[in-house]
Amino acid sequence: MRPLYHPSMKEINVQGILYALSDPVRARIYAELVQADCAMNCCAFLSNGNLKLPKSTLSQHFKALREAGLIRSERKGVELKNSSRCQELKKKFGPMVVAILKAYEKEANASKR
Questions:
Q1: How far apart are CA 51 and CA 25, in angstroms?
Q2: CB 96 within 8 A of CB 104
Q3: Backbone dihedral region of 69: left (phi > 0), alpha (psi from -120 to 50 degrees) or beta?
């Protein structure tokens, strides 16, 4: 199998992060990974809220998050375990990523009312 691409901190830029988090599904996946105590596999997100997402769609979302530098994925047998790179990103981008996630959360809560 090909190794997974993870950009170095020098390669991660604001445009890539904004693109990756521009999709509400990816933003929700990333928010859950940030809050998780441990790495999570793709299957944990098959039922993302009211959405039922195919594995192929989830794989594309995880690829976008990984290539933007937001997550790290490790192969464990046939599964990929995904975790947030939030601590690394805070050093370079400060509170930007957290602010984006809070804005999505606020928007989601407002739409539920």
A1: 9
A2: no
A3: left
